[in-house]
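Predicting holo structure, NAP bound.
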Amino acid sequence: MKPLIITGCNGQLGRALNKQLASQSEYELINTDVAELDITNIDQCLELVCSIKPYAVINCAAHTGVDACETDRDNAYRINAIGPRNLSIAAAKMDAKMIHISTDYVFDGFGDKPLIEFDRTNPQGMYGITKLAGENFVKDFAKNYFIIRTAWLYGDGNNFVKTMLRLSESNDKVRVVGDQYGTPTSADELAKAICHLLPTENYGIFHGTCEGSCNWAEFAEEIFRLAGKNTKVEKITTEEFGAPAPRPAYSVLENYMFKLTTDFAFADWHDAIADYIKTL
Ligand SMILES: NC(=O)c1ccc[n+]([C@@H]2O[C@H](COP(=O)([O-])OP(=O)(O)OC[C@H]3O[C@@H](n4cnc5c(N)ncnc54)[C@H](OP(=O)(O)O)[C@@H]3O)[C@@H](O)[C@H]2O)c1
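Done. Tokens:
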């Protein structure tokens, strides 16, 4: 069996990957979260990776609090940049593949066309800045790597979908930002895409999101429609919402590398969210 080290296994993607890989008997899963492996600690990373000699390290750990990263800069750099650096150094030492997850927030969002892997990055907030630093470390230190940029992720964990459904319990109307465009992506879909790349040597940077796009307000409307809620959505601007961290206004990713180099196709975001709502 091929050992796979999964970091951040209790997060949304970590859980989805476990579900996805459960049926694949060729892999042995070594699940770790911060209690078992703190990715910010190079000694721990080297010790575990050198003792397991994994086929691949799949880094699902991150500091995903976009607003918190603005004030918690040191931890954001530690977890989002130094962490993937440590894992990449250790994976390279053992000739293991390195799979790392990044974000649409590495782009500034000033454009209005779907972004491909060859477009210029220019993060505006600390989350995107630290995630881009993580990508660069992976490129510098891992030998065989996949960097997969995803967006607006929802799965088993805290996410926008659950927040909307919770708000709908006590509100007839919710105010949601209507001028930021992206693509809601199911952690299950992303996990399938990772499993597709895992056995290959098709290395590089990939955009990995569901197909299609919307703004947050449209996403909320679809969530309420699917969940049979009568809650109304009032569209507000980014400025009116006033979040501490800047967010890209347009960060729709095109899965260009998946399309160019694989036969893997992501589900449309409408279908993926419909499947997810059924599971809640
Ligand atoms: N969520 C999104 O909307 C989104 C969008 C674009 C890209 N992404 C990327 O997709 C990936 C998966 O995101 P997700 O939503 O599954 O994240 P998540 O649910 O926030 O899970 C991250 C996990 O990493 C753990 N962790 C934090 N610090 C750690 C450390 N030092 N060592 C080991 N584990 C640590 C967290 O533990 P604690 O909970 O105890 O901190 C948590 O279990 C991340 O790379 C993220 O940047 C996410």
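Residues 81 and 134 are 4 Å apart (CA to CA).
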